[in-house]
Amino acid sequence: MNMNKNIGNPERAIRVGGGLLLVVLAATGTVGIWGYLGVIPMATGLIGWCPPYAMFGISTCAKKD
Q1: Distance CA 13, CA 27 (A)
Q2: Pick from 4, 5, 20, 27: CA 20 to 30 A from residue 56's CA?
Q3: What pLDDT score does 3 carry?
Q4: What is the mean pLDDT of the chain?
């Protein structure tokens, strides 16, 4: 499987921010242990590659001319 970036910068920021928020809420006991699943969008946002996007041929990266 090719690991070229398939997540654009705006989506990466949303994934990292949302994932971080979930982890913080879980750590403070606000949302329970399931909040630690926020690590997944945070990780995909940081590396810029999403396995399901790769499987389905989806990319939110800006097209290069």
Answers
A1: 21
A2: 20
A3: 79
A4: 93
**Residue 44: HSE in the Cβ half-sphere, 13 Å Cα cutoff:** 19
Distance CA 4, CA 50 (A): 10
User: Can you say whether the dihedral through the CA atoms of 41, 45, 47, 49 is positive or negative?
Assistant: positive
- Considering only CA atoms, which of 35, 40, 36 is closest in space to residue 52? 40
Please, which residues have CB within 8 angstroms of residue 56's CB and are 6 or more apart in sequence?
A: none
Q: Which amino acid is at 5?
A: K
Of 39, 58, 16, give the one whose Cα is nearest residue 5: 58
SS (H, E, C) 21-60: HHHHHHHCCCCCHHHHHHHHHHHHHHHCCCHHHHHHCCCC
- For residues 6 and 61, what is the distance between their CA atoms, to the nearest angstrom? 6
Residue with tokens 């920021």: 13
